[in-house]
Design brief:
The protein is α/β, with parallel strands linked by helices and 209 residues long. It is globular, with a radius of gyration of 17 Å. It contains 7 helices and 9 strands, in the order βαβββαββαβαβααβα. α5 (147-157) packs antiparallel against α6. A hairpin with a 2-residue loop joins β5 (88-95) and β6 (98-103).
Length: 209
């Protein structure tokens, strides 16, 4: 996976493609299989030339996380300064001083290099990016076959408390109301089938003139 290493502009003299890359926006409720499908597309189909969009956050790094790999780590003050300058495509303050967002400049640098940029964002962020780029971006919503199935998957994970699962399900019910705002909706009932459908959707979009 290729990522930017700094928040600066692209290096002078970089080998850039004459054709700008396109954008794939993927959103889904937690537990819908979004990350599994996105990672499979990127790792198994290099011919798609997909590169991940690295978001910014104001939270501290966790464990072995590195700046520019998992996230770009900013202070809350730095994040607010960039918001004030209109540098974000989308951002959200999850709670006080805990921001997440996508910088326009980084996306444009990737696109200028001919990379097709993949966004793994929440539904509001996905709608904001789609609104900004229009037909240059494909917005794909991945959803579970039902809230009941989503509950089963979250319980099977064994990583969340019962209270956290209820919170995730309540959020998922809200996020599902955004599905009709996306270009394509993919129901992940069978993972192998969903992977094949996602591959066709992305391939068809990238093949458009």
């Amino acid at each position: 996976m290729k990522n930017e290493e700094s928040l600066g502009t692209a290096s002078e003299g970089c080998p850039c493609s004459s054709e700008k890359g396109k954008m794939i926006i993927v959103s889904a409720p937690s537990g819908s299989g979004k990350s599994t499908i996105v990672n499979w597309l990127m790792e198994t189909h290099p011919e798609l030339n997909l590169y991940f969009s690295v978001s910014c956050t104001s939270r501290p790094p966790r464990g072995t996380e590195q700046n520019g790999v998992e996230y770009f780590f900013l202070t809350p003050e730095e994040f607010r300064e960039k918001i004030a300058r209109g540098e974000f495509l989308e951002y959200e303050e999850v709670y006080e001083d805990r921001f997440y967002g996508t910088l326009k400049e980084l996306v444009e640098t990737q696109r200028a290099q001919g990379e097709n940029v993949v966004f793994d964002v929440d539904v509001k962020g996905g709608c904001s990016i789609k609104q900004h780029y229009g037909d240059e971006a494909l917005s794909l919503f991945i959803q579970p076959p039902s809230i009941e199935e989503l509950r089963r998957r979250l319980e099977k994970r064994g990583t969340d408390s019962s209270e956290d699962i209820e919170k995730r399900l309540a959020k998922a019910s809200y996020e599902l109301t955004f599905a009709d705002k996306f270009d394509k909706v993919l129901v992940n009932d069978d993972l192998d089938v969903a992977k094949a459908e996602a591959l066709k959707i992305v391939t068809d979009f990238l093949g458009q003139l």
